[in-house]
């Protein structure tokens, strides 16, 4: 089965369910195999980490250290729980696909499925 998603890295998304319901944020990482995305500053979890040396800091003597302690970091959110925000109408929307011609070849483009918008999401 092909692992494709209509949400890409850098998209602005609206969270539909979960503890951060109603909030918006940018997608930092998309994981099509897991059908999950990581959204900036949303779905934060606390992780207790040890201080560890950083490899290849600047090769100028002493190795740097990553700080230890309780660190908050975003965890993955299922793709079904987020919706892309259209850059034109600024509302959450379902994503459709259209083909258009660019430089003599057909290219698939994501479009807003709102009836009054219908603009391209990929600019």
Q: What's the domain count?
A: 2
Described by the principal axes of the CA atoms, the overall outline is elongated
Tally of strands: 12
Helical segment count: 0
Structural class: mainly beta
How helical, in percent, are the residues?
under 10%
Largest sheet features:
6 strands, antiparallel
Topology pattern, helix = H, strand = E: EEEEEEEEEEEE
Our measurement of the CA-to-CA distance between the termini, rounded to an integer number of angstroms, reads 28 Å
Oligomer: single chain
Strand order of the largest sheet: 8-3-2-1-9-10
Poorly predicted segments = none
**What radius of gyration results from the CA coordinates?**
19 Å
In short:
The chain is mainly beta. The protein has no helices and twelve strands. The protein has strands at 12-15, 24-31, 36-39, 44-49, 52-53, 65-66, 69-74, 77-78, 82-85, 92-93, 95-102, 105-112.
Describe this structure in words.
- This protein has 123 residues and is mainly β.
- The protein has 2 domains: 79 residues, Roll (SH3 type barrels), CATH 2.30.30; 36 residues, no CATH class.
- It contains no helices and 12 strands.
- A 6-stranded antiparallel β-sheet has the order 8-3-2-1-9-10, with no helix packed on it.
- A hairpin with a 6-residue loop joins strand 9 and strand 10.
- The chain is elongated and about 55 Å long.
